[in-house]
Design goal:
This protein is an alpha+beta fold. The chain is 22% helix and 29% strand. The strands form 2 sheets. A 6-stranded mixed β-sheet has the order 1-2-3-10-5-8. A 4-stranded antiparallel β-sheet has the order 4-9-6-7, with no helix packed on it. Bound molecules: calcium ion (3 copies). The site of one calcium ion has 6 residues, from loops.
Amino acid sequence: MVTADDWLCVSHAKEHISMKSIFHSFTLTACLLATVGATAHAQNLITNADFSGGNTGFTSDYEFVLTNISTTPTAEYGVVLLSNTWNINFPAFGDNTPGISNMLIANGSAVAGQAFWSQTVAVTQNTTYVFSGFATSAFTQSAPVIEYFAGTTSLGIITPSTATPGTFEFFTGTWNSGTNTSVELRLVDNNLAENGNDLAVDDLSFVAVPEGSTAALLALVGVPMLGFLRRRATK
Ligand SMILES: [Ca+2]
Ligand SMILES: [Ca+2]
Ligand SMILES: [Ca+2]
């Protein structure tokens, strides 16, 4: 059940996220912790979700390359610490994970429907899940249009700004498993442009959320954020 307090928290969280000051709000931290409780330990079902393991644990319709030499060929990806070590034309930026870790970086495909990242995970029937992550444009031109799927169901679209490549933006959506016992999660760039249309993603998560109030919060702030808040609060 979603209580008035839960929605107050959500409201506060929205304000703080929009102000990019969530990390500095002790009140909000307490609010989130009180509401989320034990389910903040919800297990992330995605393997190598922060890409610290390198090019492993997922599949891609794109080709893995160590360096992407120019705007073409498209439909190539890498797993790197720094954007410009993969494509020298990209503005230099690191990943989204605190500390030293990789991100997936890609030159968007000119062919429709290709997933630049996908992974199949086991799920429990009749359970609500939240799929979330962070995405950024990797170049200053032609923003990627990233659609995220659970199976054939579209959970949403994010079009990360080209104004400041490397500024990761949060995306999230919910999905109910119904009779499914596994699901293929997919990230697809619907922009088919060759010039620009470059992207990076990081810190993906897919978690079961049995309670409505918790689902609302997880959908909003994401598991990585809650983990960060918990660690911060216990220091
Ligand atoms: Ca990372
Ligand atoms: Ca980092
Ligand atoms: Ca491109």
